[in-house]
Design a protein that fits this description.
The chain is mainly beta and about 160 residues long. Helices cover about 10% and strands about 35% of the residues. The chain contains one helix and nine strands. The strands form two sheets. A five-stranded antiparallel beta sheet has the order 1-9-6-3-4, with no helix packed on it. A four-stranded antiparallel beta sheet has the order 5-2-7-8, with no helix packed on it. The longest helix is centred in the first third of the chain and has 16 residues. It is globular, with a radius of gyration of 20 Å.
């Protein structure tokens, strides 16, 4: 009986003082992120689908930019995805873009940049390319203003900060 009570107390202590850590990556700010000039390297096509959360504002007039790439320095940059006149990034919508850029290996990072006053909450970003497997990044949070915000899952490889 005493062993059972001791075990229960130990387990209660363990659960009380242990901190659960999410294994689902969360987006982060990346203030030192730099765009690599890839204007002349447009040899691969990517399909990018961005789903706007149903918790987002009804619509946004903010400027939305996107950058993604692989662990080897191949970066694709789309300076303006937004177009308020066509209803881009409305609440509960999915917008799909064809973006040209340098060919890359597996996409392991994506960053969104928002500039404006409306606010915007993407649910997820999915990137498909001919030479890469589909990569989906889950945001489900508002994008801060005037900062690159997203994921770097490149396992310690360098993403441009120059």
């Amino acid at each position: 009986m005493m062993k059972a009570v001791t075990l229960l107390l130990f387990l209660a202590f363990l659960f009380t003082f242990s901190q659960a850590k999410s294994i689902i990556p969360q987006p982060q700010q990346f203030r030192s992120f730099k765009i690599i000039n890839t204007q002349n390297l447009k040899s691969c096509s990517y399909t990018v689908s961005i789903t706007t959360s149903c918790s987002s504002t009804k619509y946004t007039r903010d400027q939305i930019s996107l950058a993604f790439g692989d662990a080897y320095g191949n970066q694709v940059y789309a300076p303006r995805l937004d177009d308020p006149s066509t209803g881009t990034f409305e609440r509960c919508s999915r917008d799909t873009f064809q973006i040209l850029g340098p060919c890359s290996y597996q996409i392991c990072y994506v960053y969104l940049y928002r500039s404006g006053f409306d606010g915007w909450m993407p649910e997820k970003v999915t990137i498909n390319g001919y030479y890469t497997k589909s990569a989906t990044f889950y945001y489900n949070t508002y994008i801060p203003d005037d900062v690159w915000y997203g994921f770097n899952l490149c396992n310690g490889a360098s993403v441009s900060t120059m």
